[in-house]
Amino acid sequence: MRYPHVDMEGLTAIVALAETSDMAKAGELLHIGPGAVIKMLSKAENELFAKLFRKTKERIELTADGRIYCSEASLAIEHAVLAEEKIVAAKHLRERRLLVGHSAHLPARLLALLAHLNDESILGMKIEQTGGLDHNDNCL
Question: Would you tell me which CATH number, out of the four given (3.40.50.300, 1.10.10.10, 2.60.120.330, 3.30.310.50), belongs to the domain 8-123?
Answer without folding.
Answer: 1.10.10.10
